[in-house]
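Hi R.,

As promised on Friday, here is the backbone we talked about, encoded as C-alpha cells. Could you run it through your design pipeline when you get a chance and send me back a sequence?
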C-alpha cells in the first residue's frame, strides 16, 4: 500500500511539475486566438482585387515576383551571361546494364570581375535522340556526391536513382549547388574577439564575377543556385536528345525551395 501511495504521489508531482513547466513556455504566434494577418493573396498591393487569370498574369504575379526578389532572394546582376559556353567533360560513358548514357558538361561564364564555371552531369536513355527527345529532371544536388549521387554508379542511393528514372523514359541532370555558391560560411574568432569568415561571400564563387561586396539587395545562395539551374536549362536547349519544353526542376530541403524560385 505504501508503495502505491509513493507512486501516486510521484505521479501527481510529475503532473504538477509538467503543468508548471508548460506555464513557463513563452508565447508564440501560434498561441494567439486570432490568425496572423498575412497579405491577401488575391488582392494587389494597391488593394484592387484579382478577379481573373489575366489580372494575375498581368499584375499580381509580376509584383509578387518583384517583392520576393527585392526582399527575400536578392537581385541578380545577370541572367544568361553573354559569353556562356558549354564544353564536354570527357567522352560520353555508357552504362549497358541500365541502358543509359552519361554526359558531362562544363558551363563557363564571366563577369566584369572574374570568371566562373560548374559541371552538370546528365543520365539519359541510350535510345534518346533528336527524333525521340526525352523529358528531363534537373536536380539541384545539395548532398555529397560520393555518398548520395555517385556519378560513377558504384554507390547507389534512393536520393538519386538515375537507373529508375531512365528506365521510365526520362533523363536526369544534376549539378552540385556548392559549385555555384557555398552553403554556409564558417566564422573563426581572433584573439581580440574579431569574427573572421574563412570563406567570405562575394570574394569567390559565382558572386565574385560581378560584385565587389554585398549589399542588402544582393542575391543570396538560393537565388544563386536557382540561377545555376537556369543555366543548365540553357544547356538542355542545345542537346537534341533532351526535350527542353518538358523539364522539371527538383531539390531536397532548401534545394526544393531553390527549385521553386528557379
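Update: got your reply. Pasting your designed sequence below so it's all in one thread:
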Amino acid at each position: 500500500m505504501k508503495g502505491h501511495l509513493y507512486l501516486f504521489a510521484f505521479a501527481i508531482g510529475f503532473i504538477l511539475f509538467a503543468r508548471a513547466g508548460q506555464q513557463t513556455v513563452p508565447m508564440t504566434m501560434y498561441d494567439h486566438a486570432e490568425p496572423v494577418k498575412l497579405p491577401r493573396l488575391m488582392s494587389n498591393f494597391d488593394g484592387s482585387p484579382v478577379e481573373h487569370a489575366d489580372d494575375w498574369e498581368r499584375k499580381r504575379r509580376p509584383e509578387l515576383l518583384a517583392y520576393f526578389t527585392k526582399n527575400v532572394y536578392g537581385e541578380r546582376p545577370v541572367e544568361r551571361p553573354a559569353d556562356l559556353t558549354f564544353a564536354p567533360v570527357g567522352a560520353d560513358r555508357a552504362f549497358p546494364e541500365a541502358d543509359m548514357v552519361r554526359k558531362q558538361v562544363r558551363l563557363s561564364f564571366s563577369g566584369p570581375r572574374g570568371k566562373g564555371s560548374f559541371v552538370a552531369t546528365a543520365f539519359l536513355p541510350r535510345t534518346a535522340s533528336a527524333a525521340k527527345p526525352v523529358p528531363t529532371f534537373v536536380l539541384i544536388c545539395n548532398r555529397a556526391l560520393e555518398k548520395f549521387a555517385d556519378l560513377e554508379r558504384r554507390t547507389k542511393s534512393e536520393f538519386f536513382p538515375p537507373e529508375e528514372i531512365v528506365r521510365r523514359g526520362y533523363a536526369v541532370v544534376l549539378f552540385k549547388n556548392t559549385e555555384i555558391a557555398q552553403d554556409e560560411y564558417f566564422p573563426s574568432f581572433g584573439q581580440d574577439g574579431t569574427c573572421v569568415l574563412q570563406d567570405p561571400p562575394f570574394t569567390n564563387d559565382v558572386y565574385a564575377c560581378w560584385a565587389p561586396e554585398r549589399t542588402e539587395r544582393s542575391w543570396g545562395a538560393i537565388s544563386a543556385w536557382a540561377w545555376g539551374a537556369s543555366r543548365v536549362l540553357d544547356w538542355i536547349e542545345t542537346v537534341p536528345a533532351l526535350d527542353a519544353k518538358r523539364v522539371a526542376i527538383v531539390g531536397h530541403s532548401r534545394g526544393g525551395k531553390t527549385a521553386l524560385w528557379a
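One thing I noticed while checking it: Confidence is low (pLDDT under 50) at residues 5-26.

Thanks again,
M.
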